């Protein structure tokens, strides 16, 4: 049996796979609750993994996690989890052996989406509480010089835009993410609404909700259009909670399709995530199997 884990800021998903399958046999999840400390989290993670194994032999394991991850499976930094210079692979290996692989969650998701499509050049973007991106270029995950490629949430989209959680002004995340939209509406109306409620008001064209959501989606769409043209990718895959909203998604997709640079023969496909139950768990499992000679 193989185990694959996806660690998010809110919840952690653990999936058991038969050795010749990419469809999970069983999936369990638990609240990540990073404020309880890493050792407490590791205890709950190992207990969940052992419950799924139920005495069966583990072949390989894989972990996708928020944050920058180096080649040795160390989490260099993860603001969502409060981790810095954490030897995650070493810690998990104490309980499940050395045949395991750790990767950034967006990178892993991008690899899964590229693998199922047979795509060599693909960008995966997740839009939820924050915004992140993973890249597959020429068939390989692109991590960058500092393992931080794809950290688009903290790129400057508007020089005099709203203040971001990182302290800078005008970050993409402060304008287009779920938390960014909620903060903007609160600053304009005094209301602390969930994104679902903001979207409902925007669909009815109530102001300032319509303007805030439309603007946020267009700012992100403009950024992604530039990514598409700069890297000459063939598929842009969208995932995350905000993409499930038809209004937000339609503004974004229509902008990209209308505005990318149309050179002869160039066609960009904008698609929704296809990989279940979670592209991060499948992508990092594929990478781990490739490293340790498993069936993919």
From TrEMBL:
Superkingdom of origin organism: Bacteria
Extent of the signal sequence: none
Gene3D superfamilies from the UniProt entry: 3.30.420.40
Family classification: Belongs to the ROK (NagC/XylR) family.
Protein name: Transcriptional regulator
